[in-house]
Amino acid sequence: MTLRAWRWSVGLSLAVLAIATLAVPSPAQETKPTATPAPAAAPPADSNYVGAETCKGCHEEQWNKFAKTRMGRLFLYQARDAAEKNACENCHGPGKAHVEAGGGKGKGGLITFAKNDPTPVLKRNQVCLDCHTKGERIFWKGSSHESRNVACTNCHTLMDNVSPRHQLTRVNEIETCGTCHLQKRAQTMRSSHMPVREGKMTCSSCHSPHGSVTPALLKEPSLNDSCFTCHAEKRGPFLWSHQPVVESCANCHDPHGTNHDAMLKLAKPRLCQQCHTESGHVSRPYGPIGTQQKFVMGRSCNDCHVAVHGSNHPAGFRLTR
Amino acid sequence: MRSVRMPRSVRMPRALLVVFLLLGAAPEAPAQTKTQTQIGGWNLQGEIESGIQGLPQNPNGTHTPGLADGKFEEYRDIRGLGNDNNSGLFLENLQLRLFRPDEAYSIEMSGKDWGFHTQEFHLLGERLGQWQVGFDWDQMRHIYSTDSQTLLKAFGDNVFIVRGSPGGRPPIPAWNSAPSWSCSAASISIGSSDCDGQISQQWFTGRLFFKLSPTPNLDITSELTRIFKDGQRPFGMAFGSPGGNFLELVQPISQTIYEWKTRGTWARDMFQLTWGYTLSVFVNDFPWVRADNPCNGDGVTTIAGGCAAPGASGQFGTTSLPPNNQAHTVNIAGGVNLPMQTRVNSSLTYQWRLQNQDFLKQTYSNSLVANNVSLQNPQNSLNGNVQTLLFNLDATSRPLAAPVTFALKYRLYDYMDFSDQIRFQAFVINDQNTITSNPLTAGRYSYLRQNADLSGRYQIAPPAALTLGVGWEGWNRSHQWEVTQTNEALAKASFDYTPTDWLLARTSSSMGFRRGNFYNHVAFWEANDNQPPGFAGSGSQLSELRKFNEADRNQYILSLLLQITPIDSVSISPTGSYKNTQYIASGLTNNGTWFNTAMLGLQTVISWTAGVDVNWTPTDRLTFSAGYMYESIFQKQRSRNNGPNDPSMDWISDNTDQFNTYTASMKATLIPDKLVFKLGAAYSQALGRVQQYSPNATGSTVYNANQPNDVTWRWPAFYNQLARLDAALDYTFAKNWTAKFFYAYESFVNADWQTGALTPALTPNGSGSIFLGQNWQNYTAQILGVTLKYKFE
Fold first, then answer.
1. I need a surface site. Which of B406, B616, B705, B709 has the fewest CB within 10 A?
2. Left if phi > 0, otherwise alpha if psi is -120 to 50, otherwise beta: which for B197?
3. Nearest to B15 among A13, A139, A303 (CB)
4. Facing residues of B561 across strands?
5. Residue A237: is the preceding peptide bond cis (ω within 30°)?
6. A222, B644: Cβ pair inside 8 Å?
7. In the β-sheet with B153-154, what is the strand arrangement from edge to edge?
8. What is the tens place of the pLDDT at every residue in B2-44?
9. Which of helix, strand or coil describes residue B698?
10. Contact A247 B447 (CB under 8 A)
11. pTM for this structure?
12. Which residue of A has its CA nearest to B653?
């Protein structure tokens, strides 16, 4: 597998080499200007709309940045319907009044989406939802964020490419979500953690910030299903089940990070002893002294009770096989 | 176990070096009016950044070629596939987009870390607004240990042997001199495994996806994902109970998850509909792992250094590993807009989880099986079948002229385990000679969870909104659980205040009161062991115990977030939260207090946080930010040593975890469009404490074997800290060229008494139990490098 990956890497880099060699314009090569927008940017039939070219006349810098975004490319070059053909005015509103007033801040009743925009958040969000109510955003209305008056533009910026994906206001998801969820952002620094700060996972790997049918805005039908997406070996069902695992992984783990092994909420054996108070070695107050070491050192309870998420072994009723 | 070491002759950096040099040799485009780089009529934009980096200071002071650097590279790869002393050339970032001038079609290619264990690349082709097809590839690794020791030798990937001199096992103390974890042969022939001295996993994830949007209102997507996991992880194996020993070894991992998802969504002005199907298949190439028992001497009567007599456990053990399984999920959901600003959403999801892998034998000790017919498995497999049903109904409405929005939510999640209930007549306890003939049924756990919420949000005035609500959570569990019915009533309030455009305040609070019908501490035995009600036999729960997930509780939660922007260039965001959970012992004699302090189990959890973020942009060329977060989590639990009927043997554990996290960063544009300096720092510190004492405290600090609970001691603290400093200088020396010089410093300190002083053999107190002896080591590392970036415009 690794050799194949190497070959892919070498092959792709050679492709890049070829592209780079062909792409750099030479003085003798005819250069072509940037493509002009399609006729979609011409003033629409509705007399209250003025067209994107008119907007560009005064807002060229913003127009140029917008033209490089995904939405900008769609609206300005490949509009699919009349609403998209309105381009800038599709979101900001008809521009005729603004133009006739000579432009300027607050003129013409446009929606600016700026922080000091007097337009209610509900109305601003509806502009986005007029197109973006597909998929998980079906559950936006009544969701945790919507019910607290969070605006789409609190997390997203459409006029510039700040993040590589999703048009976020910050360079990545954890910084964007961490604007309000400071504690969760700090939690990514804990020693036992999922690879969020290493860039291998993001908040949206598990959560759906636009709304969902599961508590904590999780994407999957249950918390356990979210975990099973990557940790399907825990899914079972097993011959011998471990009751708290069946109910919720969060009974023992904190997926945002902890300072205990395997993101457990507490060091073993104390964690297990919160539920296991029985006769025998289970309930002893183990500590760092000689005769008790084998029950507390290393992996502690899991050194024997290794199948703690469930066992499929006929003799595994104590989750030891 | 597969190694990811690559021969030196095939190295990405050389290919990148060629690219790098050719790019550098390419003539610079003449300065003229803005032009678009083109290839055959297609425009090209993007960037490629490549460079070299090295480690002037090795983590841990030294580096073993071929090994990753423990915690430093837990999820990262700084050295490259060869784990050599210097990583050489690497690809920092690649983002290229080829597109038609009219933006109708485009191809995007991106990637990073090519040539490293964490490499990724992405390919996307699309017809803008109509269809997309793409492929993602990602590699990730997880290092568990680079300092484990063992005398085990691997025979194949899932069999581990420790044959010492013929007919015997090495003396237990010999494990303390074991070499580093390795599968290399010594005195016996070995299979094909190739262990590279570290215990780690490598994940390879490939994803192929397709999206079609025939109209702006309709999306159809399909994606196929394959995750292949290869490597090992730490594992344990027990050799019989009671009084047996255990062995820490590794679990071989060669697992694949296949997932196929297909989705459709149709949106109109007044309603939206979405539907989907997901198939997930898990395949494990290793259904079991086997290892020699360090304490069984192949005929040698005793093993020096701490084993029990050889009859205490078998020659080897066989432990099952996760079985193959699959899940099918179908869902449909929709929303509709109704008059009076009303919206109703609903969803229905049904899932089947199936598992039917053949059981292992109870034991592979032939003499034991031959003499005990009762050890025969009553059937070959589980016929595992769990089905879940999820139903949601949400409605929001603003029916009144007053600015009040009502919200109603209902959620039902039904977990139904239809797997066979198999009754076993006897069990192997000790593969040498011990079975138990107490029949036991492998019971199935099912439950139904329901949530309902009703709230009203009143816009008191334009800047202020108050939300009040009530909620309910109900659980119905099958009779195998201790509590078959719980109900929790919740009251919620939140207040949002935005008096000016420079101040935002959000606060919320909730109270919850959960009560169950009856706590049956012998439910497991009644359901699975055919015992009569009230059974209190060996191994049963103590009657005063309340498992926290089923216990009665009172819970209070409070949170606050402020965002203050006194001037445009400054923003300050203080935040705080408090959560208090008290578990209550229903059914026990209430000794006059609301909280019965005699209850066993988790009693109290109190957590709180306080932090602030500050951002300051004094000029458009200078930005500062800083943040601090403090967190504290306290858990109090009570237990009883060697119960059940002697409260004088009770003990309490107070467990506290505290965290301090500091961040700071600065970005300065020294020369516009030319020279940018960035500085970032992060420091995180965690302290975990456990203090155990007796409620009948005599204050003794001397351990008494006859009264082991009656001593007060504080565990050595769990402590770790991580510090990181990053500095980078970006210099744009030509129109499309930027050089970056970067430096990083990272320091990690770890103190964990459970692993810090651990040796493989804890004789004489380990009773022949063998550890891997792994521990995260402290490290200090410095990284220095330079990259060159070319931007296509």
1. B705
2. left
3. A13
4. B506, B575
5. yes
6. no
7. B153-154, B159-161, B288-292, B316-320
8. 333 333 333 444 444 444 444 444 433 333 345 678 888 899 9
9. coil
10. yes
11. 0.90
12. A270
